[in-house]
Amino acid sequence: MGILHQLKQFAFVKLRIFKYKNLSSCQKVTGKPKLYHPLLLNGKGKISFGNNVQIGVVNSPKYFSHYSYFEARNSETEILIGNNVSINNNCSIEALSKITIQDNVLIGINCVILDNDGHNLGVDIRLTGIPKSKVIVIQKNVFIGDNVTILKGVTIGENSVIGNGSIVTISIPANVIAVGNPVKIVKEI
Fold first, then answer.
1. Sequence-distant (≥ 6) Cβ neighbours of residue 184 within 8 angstroms
2. Strand bridging mode 39-42 / 68-72
3. Which of 30, 34, 81, 164 has its CA 20 to 30 A from that of 51?
4. Dihedral of the alpha carbons of 183, 40, 116, 147, in degrees to the nearest 10
5. For 48-81, what is each residue's pLDDT tens digit?
6. 127, 189, 132, 179: which is closest to 158 by C-alpha?
């Protein structure tokens, strides 16, 4: 590794990882993920990382330009990430209740996992009301492709694959491939 490569890594990666770590507000973080990409951890809740969790992929788009964002918004909110989980660049995980990602899960680039509506959907209380929230569970050995959005109340069963660009609004059973907007099961594994 030449000196120029080391300088680039320091200036464009390590300093950005340091910056976002120091900008993070979440005080209830356990575990230490391997950071190859900046990660901002916000909220009053708990964010837990298992062993061998990787955030960011060097040979993938948005490595130098983006960051991942995890928010456990309220004091009772939890984001639980199991062992041997790999999360690609520019991932957003936002919880009002609870999001669980079990062991050996792979998550592609630009994915969004959101356990709530973002805002209350009622016209008169859209800006002031509390959005609806439901637990999300991603079970063991799931592979989530690039640009996938997973919405509230979804469980994705063990070993299943969610294809690129899918919008997941319904629970997916174990051992299937599901794709599309809205997502549909297309094949058993």
1. 178
2. parallel
3. 164
4. -10
5. 999 999 999 998 989 888 999 999 999 999 999 9
6. 189
Q: How distant is the alpha carbon of residue 184 from its chain centre?
A: 21
Bridge partners (DSSP) listed for residue 132: none
Tokens of 80: 């639980």
pLDDT of residue 19: 95
Amino acid at 45: G
Quote the distance between the C-alpha of residue 142 and its chain's center: 13
CA-derived radius of gyration, the chain: 17
Question: Would you name the residues annotated as active-site residues?
Answer: 119
Query: How far, in Å, CA of 160 to CA of 133, rounded?
Result: 24
* Calpha distance 33→39 (Å, rounded): 10
For residue 168, what is the enclosing H or E element?
strand 167-168
- How many residues belong to the chain? 189
Mean pLDDT (the chain, rounded): 95
Of 113, 111, 64, the residue nearest 91 (C-alpha): 111
